[in-house]
């Protein structure tokens, strides 16, 4: 681990000023500290923001929800408002990491976490995300767990977060505060596809910090859930996952929100699947036909071609589970 200095911010303004000078924010620290140990990250200054007043979960007008950036994963998963309004978020959180990590890791940190690509974390290999211009060892290496959607010739690493998939499906917004004031970004615009600059992962400016994630109000009743497929049942990242929320009224699907994880460089919104569902009556045939669109545009690699079919099956299964909820 490289030497670094440490400071604790007493308020948001102090944190932003320290961040503007190049400090890296830390709260739970579950990802950044690991990367520092592995010498992947070597910040000069850590800015502890754990005492900032960003720990509330509040309902917004007409049934939306705002989750403070410093709410821990376990707190958010267990919160009555989260479980009542958007159980899909609770399910995604409870299928993440371990109980110990969920007690430490924050919502903001979870969204900001970096990829679990083994080549990114091995400083002896080529990685454009870690060292721009060095190449991507995963392209022609063992790439079984890598992305088939949203990839580029410079990076095929998957985004590891489960709850980010739920946020993407629900079309959440990320609330930010920085030197230029407050702003908000659609979740789909906050996390960036790699393109030719895979080292730039979020649309966040120098000194900005996440203050909350806000889920908009959606029509009720809303059925939702999260399904994660992985190599083992606990403490494992997704090979594929599906976040589904459906508003069914009068026997017809009026709203459909669907996203996938474990298969793309960012949480992947499945717009073609959503379009195939809206205006239709739930049925086994509909779930299969809609899910067949889940892998549109996929670019599988040598060892992860199985993800194309696995993604379709995962989405179909979760559509059926959510669609048949009472």
UniProtKB/TrEMBL annotation:
<dbReference type="InterPro" id="IPR036318">
    <property type="entry name" value="FAD-bd_PCMH-like_sf"/>
</dbReference>
<feature type="domain" description="FAD-binding PCMH-type">
    <location>
        <begin position="1"/>
        <end position="220"/>
    </location>
</feature>
<dbReference type="InterPro" id="IPR016167">
    <property type="entry name" value="FAD-bd_PCMH_sub1"/>
</dbReference>
<dbReference type="InterPro" id="IPR016169">
    <property type="entry name" value="FAD-bd_PCMH_sub2"/>
</dbReference>
<dbReference type="Pfam" id="PF00941">
    <property type="entry name" value="FAD_binding_5"/>
</dbReference>
<dbReference type="InterPro" id="IPR036683">
    <property type="entry name" value="CO_DH_flav_C_dom_sf"/>
</dbReference>
<dbReference type="InterPro" id="IPR016166">
    <property type="entry name" value="FAD-bd_PCMH"/>
</dbReference>
<keyword id="KW-0560">Oxidoreductase</keyword>
<dbReference type="InterPro" id="IPR002346">
    <property type="entry name" value="Mopterin_DH_FAD-bd"/>
</dbReference>
<dbReference type="InterPro" id="IPR051312">
    <property type="entry name" value="Diverse_Substr_Oxidored"/>
</dbReference>
<protein>
    <submittedName>
        <fullName>Xanthine dehydrogenase YagS FAD-binding subunit</fullName>
        <ecNumber>1.17.1.4</ecNumber>
    </submittedName>
</protein>
<dbReference type="InterPro" id="IPR005107">
    <property type="entry name" value="CO_DH_flav_C"/>
</dbReference>
<dbReference type="GO" id="GO:0004854">
    <property type="term" value="F:xanthine dehydrogenase activity"/>
</dbReference>
<dbReference type="GO" id="GO:0071949">
    <property type="term" value="F:FAD binding"/>
</dbReference>
<dbReference type="Pfam" id="PF03450">
    <property type="entry name" value="CO_deh_flav_C"/>
</dbReference>
């Amino acid at each position: 681990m490289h030497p670094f200095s440490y400071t604790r911010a007493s308020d948001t303004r102090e944190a932003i000023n320290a961040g503007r000078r190049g400090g890296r924010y830390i709260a739970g620290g579950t990802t950044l500290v690991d990367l520092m140990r592995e010498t992947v990250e070597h910040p000069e200054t850590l800015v502890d923001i754990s005492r900032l007043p960003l720990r509330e979960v509040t309902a917004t007008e007409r049934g939306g929800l705002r989750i403070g950036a410093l709410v821990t994963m376990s707190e958010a998963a267990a919160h009555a408002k989260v479980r009542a309004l958007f159980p899909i978020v609770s399910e995604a959180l409870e299928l993440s990491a371990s109980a110990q990590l969920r007690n430490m890791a924050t919502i903001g940190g979870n969204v900001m976490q970096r990829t679990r690509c083994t080549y990114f974390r091995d400083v002896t290999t080529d990685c454009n995300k870690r060292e721009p211009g060095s190449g991507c060892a995963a392209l022609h290496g063992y790439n079984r767990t890598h992305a088939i959607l949203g990839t580029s010739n410079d990076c095929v690493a998957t985004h590891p977060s489960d709850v980010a998939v739920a946020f993407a499906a629900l079309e959440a917004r990320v609330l930010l505060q920085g030197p230029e004031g407050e702003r908000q970004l659609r979740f789909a615009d906050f996390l960036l596809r790699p393109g030719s600059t895979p080292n730039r992962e979020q649309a966040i400016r120098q000194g900005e910090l996440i203050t909350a994630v806000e889920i908009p109000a959606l029509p009720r009743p809303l059925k939702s859930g999260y399904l994660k497929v992985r190599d083992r049942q606990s403490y494992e990242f997704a090979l594929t996952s599906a976040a589904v929320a459906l508003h069914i009224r009068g026997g017809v699907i009026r709203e459909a929100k669907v996203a996938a994880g474990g298969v793309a460089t960012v949480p992947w919104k499945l717009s073609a699947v959503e379009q195939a569902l809206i205006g239709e009556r739930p049925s086994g045939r509909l779930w299969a036909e809609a899910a067949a669109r889940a892998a549109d545009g996929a670019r599988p690699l040598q060892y992860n071609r199985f993800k194309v079919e696995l993604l379709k099956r995962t989405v179909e299964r979760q559509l059926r589970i959510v669609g048949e909820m009472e």
